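User: Quick sanity check before I run a bigger batch. Here is a single chain. Can you write out its predicted 3D structure?
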Amino acid sequence: MDRPLNNTWGVILAAGSGSRLTDASGGVRKQYLEYKGAPLFWHSARTFSRVAGVKGLVFVFPEEDVKQMEKRLRLFFKGEELGVRWKICAGGARRQDSVHCGLKELPRDCQAVLVHDSARPFVSATLITSLLDALNDGARGVIPAVAVTDTIKRVEGDVVVETPDRSQLRGVQTPQAFEVPLLMEAHERATAEGWEVTDDASMVERIASVTVVPGEQANVKITNPEDLQRLEEAKVTVPCVGWGYDVHKFGGEGDRPLVLGGVPIAGPLTIVAHSDGDVLLHALADAVLGTFGGGDIGTHFPDNDPAFAGADSSVLLKETLLMAQKAGARIVHADLTVITQVPRLAPHAKQIAKNLCRLLGLQSHQVNFKATTEEKLGFTGAKKGIKAVATVTALREL
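Assistant: Done. Predicted structure follows.
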């Protein structure tokens, strides 16, 4: 066979009954168990798609699930294009029957095949690449294996009859890689001669040599109820930062009175705004939304919606804080700056900072407020308007 092998497909076996896990998984077959928001078989598909040379995948499901799973796969590929061709077929009564069904779906020009159990969702692209490298170096069949660390006994009934030398023993994993014609020949002979095997290498060994490459300890198979713990995601608390910016121009008689951080600022200055025009709380609300990817206040509270005409910005901020809470974002710090030439905000700074703490439910050391000018530059320097920026830090469990 010509090398290198540039047209390799994977056969992902998801046709088993998973009887040993039925009770522990609430009746869900293990290939359909969710891990990080996707079923186990899809994790294998993702990994295979990242390997150069893998052009397509054949998914093998229980016959009664094929129609439903075809619809589901179409949705998966629509939402996350893996860049490979794919087919689906029904499996058989035994594992070897399911593999044989999958092999029949391979395109005629397919040179090599990787047979993989979907119950091994932790396989790495590095391991798959090592299998294909061995095939390209001339091997006809390649399997990953790990050293056996326990002492193995061969028993008859309750009596030990032999202790094999464990230095010569290996625990075999999937995927297993083969030249397509070789594996097809092995399966055809197995059918004709009634071979009963537990993996594809057991067939191929009878007609050709099989090469071993190092497997991975992490490439475990979900088999027993205790293995389900491996699918439980450890939650990690991570910091999330949101940044907000807002600007309003000064108005004239009849416009909104100046309010900053929920504190009325006495004087002649007014603000042109649809809501109450609190530039500081608007920037703060946008920053809160930023901590969990919540968009911006213009989306949630449009300035062309009569419902928000003259709206109290502290109420709008409260709504964004509730959104953050529902998203699992706990606000822990805020740093805010107002940029304006007028009015002088030093006399109001303590009251603004205190009200910000109240609105956010934070202590004084968690909220920092300051004001500055732009040295008479720009529109704020020309006393045409006012702007504010805010940075908010939150903690989220992911």
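The longest strand covers residues 237-249.

User: Great, the batch can go ahead then.
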